[in-house]
Amino acid sequence: MLDAHDIGLLSQPTTHLPLPGWIWAADNGCFTTSGSWREDRWMAWLARPHPRAGCLFATVPDVVGDHQATLDKFRRYADQVRDLRYPVAFVAQDGATVHGIPWSDIDCLFVGGTTGFKQGLVAERLAAEARERGKWVHVGRVNSLKRLLHWHGVADSSDGTFLAFGPEKNAARVAQWVRALRNGEQQKLEIADAK
Fold first, then answer.
1. Which CATH class name applies to 9-194?
2. Which of 17, 92, 109, 139 is a Cys-bridge partner for 155, taking CB atoms 3.0 to 4.6 Å apart?
3. Backbone dihedral region of 113: left (phi > 0), alpha (psi from -120 to 50 degrees) or beta?
4. pTM of the entire structure?
């Protein structure tokens, strides 16, 4: 599926590496329950000779649920990400506003935050503003058809752990969802989701 460009890979320092020709993005790995994120490991991983041609964005380190702390990290690390030739992604967190996003310094708005934030009107408004400004929009933790349909037409990409659980079965399901959305068959998916 990665070779066929049906889906992409969200890679981070502790996961699989992208191969040339894949569509992928570089995540910072801050969203972990173990609290094991290390700046030196992240920077060394980001500096590796990853295939830049297929990279949609690289997320600058963030703090889940905290816009101000995320903004502080962005100011510290964004130039380093850009210097490594990655499109820069800012992760929107709880507390973000349209006027609080460093629009001129980003290539991508990554909608992160808590579930409540991600499903709220502020996140949708931020995504709409990003689109108006010509920025890539990515939504994190989209682990169901319902969420995929919610963000369809608003986000350019999304990620989730759905494939990690039963990859043989779920990879085919995700590929089917993506093909249906690409072919304009959203209504069929909405009917299937309602069953």
1. alpha beta
2. 139
3. left
4. 0.91
